[in-house]
Amino acid sequence: MKKCLFGFGILISNWCFSQENDSKVKVSLFDGIAVAGYVDHGAFINFTGPNVNFKHKSTKMMIGMLPSVRIKEDHSNGTKNSPIMPTLGVGFALVYRKLALQIPFYYNTKTATENGAWKMGLGLGYSFK
Hints:
Elements: H1 2-16, E1 23-28, E2 33-39, E3 42-47, E4 51-56, E5 59-71, E6 84-96, E7 99-108, E8 117-127
Antiparallel strand pairs: 1-4, 2-3, 2-8, 3-5, 4-5, 5-6, 6-7, 7-8
């Protein structure tokens, strides 16, 4: 995770300090991007929420909050969680024209058998803007 954050920071800093005029850093509440993907033996569907993004020509990079629905079957013994749960994640997205590639992180809380941990996923989506 640290290597991913470091690489993303290097990439952003190179783009932010370029000499081109058409590059913009912006804060947004909603960008009109829907993403579906895989995380922790289950699926997720999200729409990018509040974020900081950097746009250069037809490419946009963003980091922000991801209001999501996670879909995962609970295989534990005894009482079980619902297979569909609303959750909030955080992550990175790279949007080229209308295609979005997203690396989200979701936190799984502590249970009787596992410690709490962040889980990384991967998703593809579409930008409606």
